[in-house]
Structures are given as structure tokens and as C-alpha cells.
Amino acid sequence: MPNPMLNARTGRGVGLGRNHDYQGIYEPDEKGQEASENARVWRVYLDEADTYDADMIDGFRTILDSLLVFASLFSAVVTTFVAQTSQVLQPNNAQITVSILVEIKELLRAAGNSTAIASVPPSFLGSNTTTYTSKDL
Fold first, then answer.
1. Which of 6, 14, 54, 75 is the least crowded, having the fewest Cβ atoms under 10 Å away?
2. What is the pTM of this model?
3. Do residues 99 and 125 make contact, with C-beta atoms less than 8 angstroms apart?
């Protein structure tokens, strides 16, 4: 397995502690060949590009690791929140039943006292209402 701290093409180390003496590393170009395909300038450029790319990829890897940790923690917190609140968002059937029974009691009392039934306030909660009190949460 290749060492990630070595340049794959030259076998020299990348990053900190590199030897930047390119005149000592590469032999000088022949006269008139300074801009050819195999000139020293292109070999130096490739080494520098390899170093830059390795440093950039290492930075991306570090950032990506941090983002993945953040995303997993965020997902865990949101999942817990949703699981806990979904149970509380259900209507309180006991409170609805008590409210309807109170209304029935008031209607029976009004009928026994010869009071107008229209004067009895309707139940504030019912099976078809979507408005719940803060006690339901």
C-alpha cells in the first residue's frame, strides 16, 4: 500500500519538511529544451500541484468529518424531539369527554328548570374540533 505522505510519482515527502531545492533535485535542462514537455519547470509544477492537492484534500476530509458528526448529532436530536412531541400532539380524549358531559349536565339542568336551551353554552371541545387547550400539550 502506498504511503499517502509520499509523492506517488517521485517518492519524496509532501507537505511540511519537503525539500524545495529543485535545482538539486532535478538536473538542469539542456539548452533550448527549457520549455519542452519534460522540462524541469513542469516536473517542479507537478510536485507543487501534488502537494497543494494533497493539502486541499486533507482539509476537505477534515471538514467533511466535522460535517458528518454535526449531521448525525442534529439528526439524533431532531428524531428525539419529533418522537416525544408526536405523542403529546394527540387530543386528550378524557378532557373532551368531561367537556361534553358538562354540557349534557347543563342541558339537563336547563330542561328541568324551564330555562332556554339556547342559553346553555356549547362545549368548547368536541370530537370534531381541532382546537385544543394548552393542557393538551
1. 75
2. 0.42
3. yes
Nearest CA to 125 out of 134, 114, 115, 112 is that of 134
Q: In whole angstroms, give the CA distance from residue 67 to residue 59.
A: 12
CA distance 47 to 52: 9
- pLDDT digit string (tens) for 106-126? 888 888 887 787 777 777 665
Q: Which residue intervals of the chain are DSSP H helices? A: 22-25, 40-88, 93-112
Strand partners, 6: 13
| Helix (H/G/I), strand (E/B), else coil: 114 | coil
